[in-house]
Amino acid sequence: MIYLWLKVVHILAVTAWMAGLFYLPRLFVYHSADAPGSDTEGIFKIMERRLLKAIMRPAAVVALASGAGLVAMGGASLSEPWLWIKLVLVLAMTGFHGSLEFFVRQFAWGLRPASSRFFRLWNEVPSLLLVLIVIAVVIRPFS
Question: Read out DSSP for 127-140?
């Protein structure tokens, strides 16, 4: 029964984390197009910081910890190829999250780290990773 509750926590944490990973780059699209020193620049900075600190970081920590707990409880064997595929993709998702942390700091300092076009494209990365992770978990390729 504990395993199933841990799975519930994992799914909820992943959902919250993904919501932030989808939304934060969209904020960057608008922030990067906004003029430095404008009235809305301060609003963007607050929104980005709060989304990152209050939702995304805690959700990422809980998602990663609960996922590790599920593996430790025997939910999957490290000898299964699909699990390694998922772990590599989750590592990539964590790296993507790290890039968003970097961009939030850059914007907080008043910089424009990239164009709105870049952030429109960057916004697609978590969608692609999520699709691949779900395929790895449900289809379990190479198993």
Answer: HHHHHHHHHHHHH-
Given a contact cutoff of 8 angstroms between Cβ atoms, the answer to whether 114 and 102 are in contact is no
CB 97 within 8 A of CB 56: yes
Interatomic CA distance for residues 124 and 119, integer angstroms: 9
pLDDT, tens digit only, all 143 positions of the chain: 999 999 999 999 999 999 999 999 999 999 999 999 999 999 999 999 999 999 999 999 999 999 999 999 988 888 999 999 999 999 999 999 999 999 999 999 999 999 999 999 999 999 999 999 999 999 999 88
Contact 105, 31 (CB under 8 A): no
HSE at residue 46, side-chain half, CA atoms within 13 A, is 5
Task: List the structure tokens of 65.
Answer: 């910890």
